[in-house]
Amino acid sequence: MSKNYYEILGVPKSAPIEDIKKAYKELAKEHHPDVAKDKTAAEKRFKEINEAYHILSDPEKRKMYDQFGRVDTGAGGGQGPFAGTQGSAWGPFTWSYASSEPEANGVDFGNFTDPFDIFEEVFGFRGFSGARKPRKGRNSYYSLEISFGESIKGVEKRIQANGNTLNIKIPAGVSNGTEIRYAGYGEAGPPNTERGDLFITIKVKPHHKLTIQGDDVFSMETISFIQAILGDSINIDALDPSSETGVSQIKLKIPSGTQPNTQFRLKGKGKPRMRGFGRGDHYIQIVVNIPTRLSRQQKNLLEDFRN
Fold it and tell me: 232 exposed, middle or buried (CB, 10 Å; 0-12, 13-18, 19+)?
């Protein structure tokens, strides 16, 4: 875990959202660059506080952070929290993955383009001294749920937001939690200022058997101990971008003598990559079902085998 967000805000891991918001308010006021003597150090600390609050105040991001020590918004497996900023344009909007180095990549804390956006969301204003007056209208946030198949195949959705009708082209391979930014489609600002931005968070309905992490897919298959001993060919669910549901069944060969917890890898059968070509891999873990009740004949046969 590269950053301890709970430690940054000074709260325990079990802290409720009310305590997290209270801690954020106190720290944000203390370290806001408008009131600090050392503005350079304060701004660095202020951004760190806002990043921690952005993650811990979002139930899904917090759950992912608690479980994996990082918030994976679609980056490949094995990368740290907010590993690498990537982006692409689709019509009038952009999608992007946040970075742990916002100054270098121009994206702050889970797609907030300005760390003062979070401060403004909580306090209703951007600064104390007047040096940071509103530059634009408030940002708007929208959650869009799509099916598992739509996330694999890609889909176009039409939504209404802030009086605008938007056609959103969601690319194949989009991950749960991906944020799409529509610049200038948020709320109207004060006179002579730009409108805020619209942030759309994609929520992908989970599949009952397939779990996606990064570009890879993971699943478990249960076989009998006879299948493990003698070998077999079984049907499994696998991603299929050409299928209506995004999933179809394929054959998996189980070699004779397969051991419990054996893991098979289907190369190139994972999720379509949004950033580049090809697909990730599919990993299948084998669970061997050992019967708890046997007939006398079955026991005799096993005794003969043992002898």
Answer: middle
- Quick one: which of 85, 142, 133 has its CA closest to 108? 85
SS3 state of residue 30: helix
Query: Phi, psi at residue 56, to the nearest 5°?
Result: -75, -15
Q: Does residue 239 contact residue 100 with C-beta atoms inside 8 Å?
A: no
Q: Which residue has the higher pLDDT, 26 or 71?
A: 26
Q: In whole angstroms, what is the distance from residue 197 CA to residue 182 CA?
A: 6
The overall pTM is greater than 0.85: no
Of 283, 164, 163, residue with least CA distance to 219: 283
Q: Number of helices (H) and strands (E), helices first, in the chain?
A: 9, 13
Q: What is the pLDDT of residues 128-170, one digit of tens each?
A: 655 555 578 888 888 899 999 999 999 999 988 888 888 988 9
Q: Looking at the domain 211-291, which fold is it?
A: HSP40/DNAj peptide-binding domain (2.60.260)
